[in-house]
Design brief:
By secondary structure, the protein is an alpha/beta fold. It contains 23 helices and 18 strands. A ten-stranded mixed sheet has the order 5-4-6-7-3-2-8-9-10-11, with helices on both faces. Strands 14-13-12-15-16-17 form a six-stranded parallel sheet, with helices on both faces.
């Protein structure tokens, strides 16, 4: 692409727009990232305006005041005839030109358990009835400039919605900005933000910079999840392929029909690409030669750093021990947890494999334990349903198929847990298929004052042995409370731990390496790996992890537990958003805002 040199610009404070599906609803990792950014005083001192951009559905009946969520304030909504700031002259031309509806306002962030808060502007656009003529012209430009063939993906609403969003979002955003706000840096959070980034590259000139924020590599996730060898196969293939100067389509075949791959593999046209972990950076470089030659900045996710004392830990453990005894009829001395989503990439069967190994070791040493797996495929169960299930058949210790109890992947998970509990005496697994942790969510047997914060503080072990985990905030959340966090070496957070500890071993984190082969394998052997081979490799690693846990668990030693809290607190103090911003994200932003940029 021809290079054009922009004029150096040194704005007093940066202007950043975030294009994401979590502009209002906190659905997963991106929402957690935005919350961490917006509430960081380091971010606030460097960024003058933050504008969150995403789609909405104004054609669906809703309370006008709630269109920006529980923590939002609507200042403009053409559908509801709201215009508190006289923004109509700016927004109406965009709405008329693209046949869209705009909702604009502000929302606040208050991270639970932290003494900080933040605020962002929110720009939502309903593209359900957008102009097909303008959209087709934009798609033609995407083909002519970037070789992106939209005709392959038009039946996929997730592509169509964000492609429809791109131009009206760009022009609505531009109408909000004054000259002193420029240049504006547009963050494309995952593949959803890429069409808007491409629109900014096409029409933004020197006024815009673009960043692709790789919270994952969608291509890699698909290949890992769909293959019986999962991560054991994929990361060994990646290593061998890169040694041979091969890229993903050289190994796995033509992927142009895969919409997410098509968008993410073009992220090299942005002014910067950032990855949340070392593995994600490697995956991005594996997509094509252009990305292999692109500077990809590592910007880890920050961790919550709430202060935890030994007294708080004892109080929280006391409540969970009390609840566990009511469920399993014995008082455990080891409390294990896994707070996660019930998807294949979380590798929940590995929890069961490690517990199988621990059961024998606990029996020999006279210990007992309970693993609580907190996950839900059925949303939030109603209080009356929870009470009925608890009273009728002892939920969540026991389960019935069908809503309000087991649905979707919860059924398969229960089919793993039920025979495990029947065959093991020293560890029991409790599947809590619910969101939240309070009496209204979990039942009357839970201690009245117990919260999700107590569950996180109470854990002696937190599992997170994922097959695909670009970063993994959740597996490290109990770190500051002295939990032993068992993560996979494919998790991005492992690289963050190594970074802050300068590769020195820490008692608080155990890295399970399910990519360690039991014998050398060729590329073809890896690509044809079956479940039997992977199970054999995983069994060996589960034994090693169990041995490590036996060495590190404090059991009834309160002094050892206090040491784990102390070392965990020291770790998380170096892993917060403030440190990430100062070390990684802000230097990247200053580089692209002040230096030369490449444009089509």
């Amino acid at each position: 692409m021809p290079r054009r040199r922009s004029k150096p610009s040194s704005p007093r404070r940066l202007t950043i727009a975030h294009v994401t599906h979590e502009a209002v609803d906190h659905l997963g990792g991106i929402g957690t990232v935005l919350e961490g950014l917006m509430s960081s005083p380091v971010y606030q001192s460097a960024v003058g305006r933050s504008i969150l951009i995403g789609p909405c559905a104004t054609h669906v009946a809703a309370d006008p005041a709630k269109r920006l969520g529980e923590h939002g304030t609507v200042l403009y909504s053409s559908v509801d005839q709201i215009d508190e700031l006289n923004l109509g002259p700016k927004f109406r031309p965009v709405e008329w030109a693209f046949n869209v509806a705009i909702v604009y306002g502000k929302r606040v962030y208050h991270p639970p358990g932290e003494d900080r808060s933040g605020e962002a502007e929110v720009l939502l656009i309903d593209v359900f009835r957008s102009s097909p003529d303008r959209l087709n012209v934009f798609k033609l430009r995407l083909w002519e400039t970037f070789g992106l063939d939209s005709s392959l993906y038009e039946s996929d609403w997730s592509y169509e919605e964000y492609t429809r969003l791109a131009e009206p979002a760009f022009y609505a955003l531009r109408s909000l900005l004054s000259d002193t706000d420029l240049p504006c840096t547009l963050f494309a959070h995952e593949y959803m933000g890429m069409p808007a980034a491409l629109a900014a590259i096409l029409d933004g000139g020197d006024d815009f910079r673009t960043v692709f924020h790789a919270h994952e590599c969608a291509t890699a996730r698909r290949l890992v999840e769909d293959h019986p060898g999962h991560d054991t196969m994929f990361y060994n293939v990646l290593e061998q392929a890169r040694e041979k100067d091969l890229f993903v389509e050289d190994v796995f075949g033509n992927l142009s029909h895969v919409m997410r791959h098509a968008l993410v593999s073009r992220s090299h046209v942005c002014d910067a690409v950032i990855a949340v972990g070392d593995r994600t950076r490697d995956e991005m470089r594996f997509l094509n030669r252009e990305l292999s030659e692109t500077q990809i900045d590592l910007v880890y996710n920050g961790l919550p750093a709430a202060k935890v004392t030994s007294a708080q830990k004892r109080a929280s453990r006391g409540m969970l021990l009390e609840y566990a005894e009511k469920l399993v009829d014995f008082e455990p001395d080891v409390l294990l947890t896994h707070v996660t989503r019930p998807v294949i990439s979380k590798g929940l069967w590995r929890d069961v494999a490690v517990c199988h190994e621990l059961d024998q070791r606990f029996g020999a040493a006279g210990h007992k334990g309970v693993l609580f797996i907190l996950t839900s495929a059925g949303g939030v169960r109603r209080r009356q349903d929870v009470r009925q299930m608890e009273k009728t058949y002892g939920w969540p210790r026991h389960h019935h198929h069908g809503f309000p109890d087991l649905v979707g992947p919860e059924v398969d998970l229960h089919h793993m847990i039920e025979p495990f509990n029947a065959d093991h005496r020293h560890i029991q697994i409790v599947l809590v298929n619910q969101f939240g942790w309070s009496r209204s969510r979990i039942g009357e047997r839970l201690p009245a004052k117990m919260t999700i914060a107590d569950l996180r503080r109470a854990a002696d072990v937190e599992f997170g042995m994922a097959t695909y985990e670009p970063f993994g905030i959740s597996p490290l959340e109990p770190l500051g409370a002295g939990a032993l966090c068992v993560i996979s070496t494919v998790c991005g957070c492992e690289g963050f731990v190594e970074h802050v500890t300068e590769d020195q071993a820490m008692d608080n984190v155990i890295a399970a390496d399910f990519t360690r082969l039991d014998r050398p394998m060729t590329l073809d052997e890896l690509l044809n790996m079956d479940r039997v081979t992977r199970d054999r490799i995983e069994t060996l690693e589960a034994r090693r992890v169990a041995d490590e846990l036996m060495k590190r668990l404090p059991f009834s030693d309160e002094s050892a537990r206090a040491d784990l809290i102390s070392s965990g607190q020291k770790l998380v103090a170096r892993m917060g958003w403030d440190q990430v911003l100062e070390e990684s994200m802000l230097p990247m932003l200053r580089r692209i805002c002040n230096g030369p940029i490449a444009r089509v």
